[in-house]
From TrEMBL:
<dbReference type="GO" id="GO:0008146">
    <property type="term" value="F:sulfotransferase activity"/>
</dbReference>
<protein>
    <recommendedName>
        <fullName>Sulfotransferase domain-containing protein</fullName>
    </recommendedName>
</protein>
<keyword id="KW-0808">Transferase</keyword>
<keyword id="KW-0325">Glycoprotein</keyword>
<feature type="region of interest" description="Disordered">
    <location>
        <begin position="273"/>
        <end position="299"/>
    </location>
</feature>
<dbReference type="InterPro" id="IPR027417">
    <property type="entry name" value="P-loop_NTPase"/>
</dbReference>
<dbReference type="InterPro" id="IPR037359">
    <property type="entry name" value="NST/OST"/>
</dbReference>
<feature type="domain" description="Sulfotransferase">
    <location>
        <begin position="8"/>
        <end position="192"/>
    </location>
</feature>
<dbReference type="Pfam" id="PF00685">
    <property type="entry name" value="Sulfotransfer_1"/>
</dbReference>
<dbReference type="InterPro" id="IPR000863">
    <property type="entry name" value="Sulfotransferase_dom"/>
</dbReference>
Length: 299
């Protein structure tokens, strides 16, 4: 007898430091979507074998039978693991819909660099840091990311959205995403999705350090975050920040070098994937398609 598992039919796969937390929190508000609340399962990019498919399935045990099940792990699009992720994902969920959220590649590198430096808890010169963690730069080559994903998934299973368009008109991008996911994209559903901002913004604030990163993994963190006064939270963050001096931006000369390196790639990527979603009103994109199957059958 076939083993029926509840697995995600769609996921936000990246890119890191590109606004994915806000998007996942928004999709969590949709009545037809079950977004796994603890972002970043890291199942498909994890080399450790102790966590099997039963462990992964159990993460979604609370999903309603009629919901579109989703998860978000932006590290799936990291350059050093996107091939492994795509291959494993295609083996287990070949019909998955993948959302890749991107931003200006240099801004993403800058934010990622600050995070890695903060988590390392040591002061590392920029040249040494980029040599130690080449994926910081390589992950901003979104064209290469999509090319890898397309080795395992059809183009129509992949949606690329841009952070600047999302900031300019969230309703339009939400409509595009819901249409892609084939769930209710009516004006009412879009309003529901856009009703709540992220509980905490992690994408563009600089990093809070390794201790705070560990705290955020605590199972009661979200509840505590909602109950604690904003002043107390801000004070706690300041106390948890590491004492070394973490730069908030790339050195000008490094940024110039990276801009020269990525100028052509970024231009070509935008030409291919920008759809002008910000020019479309939500009402013009509110088609409500039939949902995809909600259960994956695995032999």
């Amino acid at each position: 007898m076939a083993d029926t598992r509840t697995l995600p039919q769609a996921m936000v796969v990246g890119a890191p430091k590109s606004g994915t937390t806000t998007l996942c929190n928004a999709l969590m508000r949709h009545p037809d979507i079950y977004m796994y609340p603890k972002k970043e399962t890291h199942y498909f990019n994890n080399l450790f074998t102790k966590r099997d498919m039963d462990w992964y399935e159990d993460l979604f045990a609370d999903a309603p039978d009629d919901a579109l099940v989703m998860e978000g792990t932006p590290d799936y699009a990291m350059s050093d693991c996107v091939e492994r992720t795509a291959r494993r994902l295609a083996e287990h969920i070949p019909d998955a819909k993948l959302i890749l959220m991107v931003r200006n590649p240099i801004d993403r590198i800058e934010s990622h660099y600050v995070q890695m430096l903060s988590n390392a808890r040591e002061e590392i010169p920029i040249e040494e840091a980029l040599e130690k963690w080449p994926e910081i730069v390589e992950t901003s080559d979104y064209g290469a990311t999509v090319e890898t994903l397309e080795k395992y998934f059809a183009r129509d299973q992949i949606l690329v959205i841009f952070l600047d368009e999302y900031k300019a008109d969230k309703d339009a991008v939400h409509a595009e995403v819901l249409d892609f996911l084939e769930v209710d994209a009516s004006d009412e559903a879009i309003a529901e999705v856009g009703a709540q901002e992220a509980l905490h913004r992690r994408e563009d604030q600089g990093m809070d350090g390794a201790l705070l990163a560990q705290l955020r993994r605590w199972k009661h963190y979200e509840r505590l975050n909602m109950l604690m006064p904003r002043r107390v939270i801000a004070m706690g963050k300041r106390l948890l920040r590491r004492s070394i001096d973490v730069p908030s931006s790339l050195p000008p000369e490094t940024r110039e070098q990276l801009e020269a390196e990525f100028a052509g790639k970024w231009k070509r990527f935008q030409k291919e994937f920008r759809t002008g979603s910000t020019a479309s009103s939500p009402s013009a994109r509110k088609g409500n398609k039939q949902k995809a199957p909600l259960r994956q059958q695995l032999g």
